Structures are given as C-alpha cells and as structure tokens.
Amino acid sequence: MVAQVAKNTVVTLDYNVTDSDGELVDAGKEPLVYLHGGHDDIFPKIEEAVQDKKVGETVKVKLQPEEAFGDYDEELIQIEPRDQFPKELQVGMQFEGGPEGGDDDDFIIYRVTDIADDKVILDGNHPLAGMSLIFTCTVTSVRPASEEELAHGHVHSSDGEEGHCH
C-alpha cells in the first residue's frame, strides 16, 4: 500500500459535490477511482489538491465553471421539429447529434429540456455547465498503478467494479 497520493498512483476517493449554495449536486454513491498524475482522469484543480494527501485525509475544492464543466453556451440550444423524434419522447431523454455546421466527428449529447406543440428543445450543454461547484473528497485508498494502466493512461480492474475494463 502506498502511503500517499503521488504521480502514477491509482487513487480512490469518496466524494460529494454541491453547488455554491450548498445544494447537493452529486452524492458520489460510487467511489471515484482515477489514475493520478496528469492523465486527464479528473479535473486538474482536484488532482492538485489531493497530491501528497494520505488515506483518510479530506480536501474541499471550489471549481469555477471553466475549471469544471465549462460556461453555459447558448449556441448549444437547438429547436427541432417534433416529428423527427420517437413517439415516446420525454423531457430528460438524451440524443447524440452534431452541432449545426460542425464536423461529423464533433458529436454532442443533447438532452430534451422541453417539448412544446410541434417543437422539441434540445440542450447540448453538460447539466452542470455554468455552475461553480464544491467538490469534497476523502482519500480512501492509494496503490501503485500497473504498467498496463500507465501505458493506457487509465485505471483497469479485473472485476469490472471500478475503472475501465477491456
């Protein structure tokens, strides 16, 4: 067992996320497991805060929108004809699509935010875009990353419970 969070360790965090008013946004029901050390598995400001922390230590990090899910982009709102969607359409459903005039490779997940008469309102922003978030986490375990994890740049697991399986 590694004593503290360092580059190329696999870190497990128990966490929760609140907005700037203290309202719970993500209860963190499942622990967050990531490869530490600039592998883009977690927001850089959080990674910086847990660097050198030991198991049992807790950190609280305030993320501005640009440090988390980005600013809210009005251009990612689209209004589409109702007849282009399945009959069982509901607010909250998600569809994959491309931005208008964008590359075919630039797909975005759009959420249905409103259905009115013959129109459907789609929002391509992340649900937490534009929000300042407070991320509170406790380091629950730290272990050395395997050579395979380092080569792939993400956590692997043999049981499928955490991380990424091939």
Q: Which sequence of SSEs, written as H and E, runs from N to C? A: EEEHEEEEEEH
Overall pLDDT score: 88
- How far apart are the first and last residues' alpha carbons, in Å? 25 Å
Topology, number of strands: 9
Radius of gyration: 19 Å
Beta-strand percentage? 35-45%
The CATH architecture name of the largest domain reads Roll
What is the name of the CATH class of the largest domain? Alpha Beta
Whole-number count of domains: 2
Give the helix proportion (percent range).
Answer: under 10%
Shape: elongated
Largest sheet: 5 strands, antiparallel
Provide the CATH topology of the largest domain: Chitinase A, domain 3
Structural category is: mainly beta
Number of helices: 2
Ranges with pLDDT <50 over ≥5 residues? Answer: 159-166
Characterize the structure shown.
This protein has 166 residues and is mainly β. The protein folds into 2 domains: 9-68 and 130-152, Roll (Chitinase A, domain 3); 74-123, Thrombin, subunit H, CATH 2.40.10.330. It has 2 helices and 9 strands, in the order βββαββββββα. The strands form 2 sheets. Strands 1, 2, 3, 4 and 9 form a 5-stranded antiparallel beta sheet that branches. Strands 5-8-7-6 form a 4-stranded antiparallel beta sheet, with no helix packed on it. Strand 1 (9-19) and strand 2 form a beta hairpin. The radius of gyration is 19 Å and the shape is elongated. Residues 159-166 have low confidence and may be disordered.
